[in-house]
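Propose amino acids for all 166 sites.
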């Protein structure tokens, strides 16, 4: 007889994954464009410019079993009189999934993976605006990737006929 408690069947062995998840194998800037077309006048704008933010997520499988995920952020700051700045960033990551059920792969790639890429993309945009002469630098607000994904799924479920009428 021993004093050691029996191993819990639900506790994974050391070195084994605890359940479904992913590993980030690489992160990279795929495309970056910063325009400050009216400098130096754009640096002296009174008040806050209007911000138009675009967010896209794309994912694709690769022949080696890995997944490439891209987060595309576009930011346009403008006033009635001029464009203050334009930024387009495609920030990518290479991910290895493990233990993910087939029906959970798409949400993992389009919600969780972009959630991990976002802080790095946000920092790149802040740095680009600071380097462009803007102080304080532009900081993209947190993004609800799950909300974007669910909205897109609802659009797809409604079908093209209803979407065209909206």
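Proposal:
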């Amino acid at each position: 007889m021993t004093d050691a408690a029996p191993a819990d069947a639900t506790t994974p062995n050391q070195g084994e994954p605890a359940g479904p998840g992913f590993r980030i194998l690489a992160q990279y800037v795929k495309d970056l464009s910063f325009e400050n077309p009216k400098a130096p006048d754009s640096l002296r704008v009174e008040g806050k410019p209007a911000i138009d933010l675009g967010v896209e997520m794309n994912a694709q499988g690769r022949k080696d079993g890995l997944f490439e995920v891209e987060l595309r952020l576009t930011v346009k700051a403008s006033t009635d009189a001029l464009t203050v700045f334009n930024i387009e960033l495609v920030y990518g990551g290479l991910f290895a999934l493990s233990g993910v059920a087939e029906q959970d792969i798409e949400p993992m790639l389009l919600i969780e993976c972009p959630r991990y890429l976002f802080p790095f993309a946000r920092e790149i945009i802040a740095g680009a605006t600071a380097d462009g002469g803007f102080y304080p630098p532009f900081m993209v607000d947190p993004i609800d990737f799950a909300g974007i994904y669910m909205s897109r799924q609802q659009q797809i479920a409604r079908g093209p006929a209803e979407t065209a009428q909206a």
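The beta strands are 21-35, 50-61, 67-78, 83-98. Residues 102-131 form the longest helix (30 residues).
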